[in-house]
Amino acid sequence: MHLAWVSSAEAQHFVDVANKVTESIKSQGPLKADELQMQLSAAEMTVNEEAVRWLVGKEITITSKGDVYGRKWDVNRYEAFLDSALEKVYHKNLICLAIKADFTSVREISKKTGLILQRVSYLLADLEKTNMVEFMGMQDSKPVFAVI
After folding, report:
1. Where does residue 32 fall: left (phi above 0), alpha (psi -120 to 50 degrees), or beta otherwise?
2. Would you tell me how many other CB atoms lie within 10 Å of the CB of residue 88?
3. Domains in the chain, please, with CATH?
4. What are the pLDDT digits (tens) for 7-45?
5. N or C: the chain end with fewer CB closer than 10 Å?
């Protein structure tokens, strides 16, 4: 997934972003949508998140005028922050979709999503704090979760 803010006044930037994305897509080969349905759904959920849209929309303001404290962010620093935030939201969405598909233990979620166990555990705790998932108890000595 690639998100970029491009103003109508930035024609060359648009060309550069479009070329970069096109090259990336071509290098990955044909899309096998049926095999990637969960990942595609998680990506769609991610780009529809209000906080993600807000972060993308604020890039120009924060890098040119500054944040609420008047500090201008370097474009690379802001984009690194944005990438990190996008990745976290995407991973959380993957985890929720895996749980909805009846992969309810940390190990099952890890195998289904391709995320390492530590990342799944960390994000499950975060999802639990925000009332998106719920610990349902133990099954065969493994914690089991459900989406709320």
Report:
1. beta
2. 15
3. 34-147 (1.10.10)
4. 888 899 999 999 999 999 899 888 787 888 999 999 999
5. C
